[in-house]
From TrEMBL:
Entry GO terms, CC: extracellular region
Secretion signal, residue range per the UniProt entry: 1-27
Domain FAM69 protein-kinase per the UniProt entry, residue ranges: 211-390
Gene: DIPK2B
Family: Belongs to the DIPK family.
Localization (cell): Secreted
Primary location class: secreted
InterPro entries linked to this entry: DIPK2A/B (IPR020519), FAM69_kinase_dom (IPR022049)
Top-level lineage group: Eukaryota
Protein's name according to its UniProt entry: Divergent protein kinase domain 2B
Gene source species: Rhinolophus ferrumequinum (Greater horseshoe bat)
Amino acid sequence: MEPLLGPEAAAFCPGWQALLLWVSALSCSVSSPAPSSPSLVPRVRTSYNFGRTFLGLDKCNACIGTSICKKFFKEEIRFDNWLASHLELPLDYLPSYPANYSDDSKTWRPVEILRLVSKHQNEISDRRICASAAASRTCSIERVLRKTGRFQKWLQAKRLTPDLVQGLPSPLLRCPSQRLLDRVVRRYAEVADAGSIFMDHFTDRDQLRLLYTLAVNTHPILLQIFPGAEGWPLPKYLGSCGRFLVSTSTSPLQESYGAPPDQAADLAYQLLGVLESLRNNDLNYFLYFTHVDAAMFGIFNNGHLFIRDASALGVIDKQEGTQTATMAEENKDIFSCLVAGCQTELPACDTIPEKQSLVLVCRQVLPQLLQGKFPSPVQEQIDALLLQCGEGARPDPEVLGAASQLKDILRLLRTCDPRFAYRYPDCKYNDKF
């Protein structure tokens, strides 16, 4: 079945075939997960055009050449389980979309299409870009960004260096080392010949797409430079384009706040383990959260907990050292202000304590997960350790020690059964699991 392009679809992207995403006529809850049998294709489908504001940059033009764009056109990403009518909101206002993804059009698996910035932020960003060029309310986003001094410097550069990202507001770039930036370029999956630390093989659009992503939301970049396949607690990156990302589907941690005690203990144990791996790893990077909430963590259907939203992660290179990013006026430009105020202050890297992520999680996430789950005196011990772990005024060793004691208690409260498929049946034969 070929999509029918209406006048509106043809108008928003002259000279290029409009990007149409199929939406199932079957309606379910917005927050419901993708079906377990995604190979079942609805008999009746209607098309929905996400339009210019969803894709970003000059909208569908920003997608051309990316692997994810090809999958959209080949219908290897199909959408269903949407119900926005009762919210009285257009579909492009939703923060995420359940979908089905295929590598061969035969075998399907559930994925999430995530907005990198909200609809409201998109509109603010577009107005700021146009205003920076003294243009009217609407303008060619890509054309304006191409003319900026920062992008012209990118075009002349053979390598991504710290001076090229100065002034960008992302926590990832707060303390950029050359080793980290080389990893960004070498692992960037949206170019034909990934693997080199030099940008000679990047087209102009490749460079603009990377710069734009670094300025708007670095979550897709973190999924590429610290992939789950190498043991990092992040979901698999499947592609991104403009202002959206496709990644492996997970359910948010807050959906497990009412979980049974053994499951709550397992999730809390995993979460503390995730934070430990961010502090200490073979690559000698220190990853830390600038803020947290339960929606930032997700759970796969096998019970494994991962970081669902990495946009608030900062990275400090303990091996090479870091160059603290500054937000001095001379470093600020339109890329500094796309999704946040231009007055953002970035603290020095040496002021980030090792305990930072633990304090945030022990204060804002774990209490809701573990509250009132266990009999006395275990619950009192857990509550006391959470208080110690969440006190930012305590020295690092005390916070780390409280977290370690809490993890030891939680390990004993876990059970071994098929609900925890990520470690079953190994847990039957090895206490490590």
